[in-house]
Amino acid sequence: MELYQLRTFVAVADAGHLTRAAERMHLSQPAVSSHIKAIEQEFDVRLFERGHSGVALTHAGQKLLEYARRALRSAEELRHAAKALKGEIAGKVRIGTNSDPEYIRLGNFLGRAVERHPMVEIELQHEVTGAAFEAVRGGVLDASFYFGDLTSPSVAGLALREMAYRVTAPAAWCNRVRKAGWAEIAALPWILTPSISTHNQLVTKLFAEHGVEMPTRRIQADQEAVIMNLVVSGIGISLMRENIALEKQHLREVCIWEKARLCTMLWFIYHANRAGDPLIGALLDVLRETWQLDLPESVAQNCAPTEHAAT
Length: 311
Known about the structure:
Helices cover 45% and strands 23% of the residues. It is α/β, with parallel strands linked by helices.
């Protein structure tokens, strides 16, 4: 068994398709098939079930996939450690994003990282917050920007900034929204993100704390810009980042419901067992400089989501 065969196994499992995996790895499909066949023959197990629409992991394949991911992570950590001994930071890092680039200072961060560590290859992947968290915990992503609670001891993070969200409605609804109570707000159409996202969890907690059923009239969207456009267009109510909501209210494009303000924390997260990884450490140093932080990385949540009644 070779590392390149394990990489192919993981790529096929992630893509669910031999051809797509071959394209991502810049290999021919026969080469990908031969890598999978070699692993299956060596371990005497069947890793995938073939179908018309692609491939699916067998029970054995599901069990072995996590071991394959661990082996690849270990090999990568060994390579990074060897580079670090020579004073070099090198390797490929997959980073998740989940907000607009300016808000998370993505351009400044990447500019500094590339300039300081030219041998580091950075691959960005946009993810819904909860999916990003699971991807970091499972080793699919090396790190990610994330907002919400750190709910697993296997995920550590560097706190970047406090975030506030406001309940925001279309401008045309201002008269009825400003006078509405919790039940009336819940009865209006809402634009919600997928249940795995922190955005959705904040809404769920908000209504649960006030003994109100979750909105039943829902439209689902998974991108901040789309949600903002739908609220401005008069489609429904949603949570909106406070800086955006205040700006849009000033332009008379939306109306903020003043009875709730929710607080959470923006993090840069990574797997806890990589706390000593030189590559992760280099990224954290660049982030501290980018955000002008004098904070240690922490696994504790410093800003739990809260709701404040209007005065």
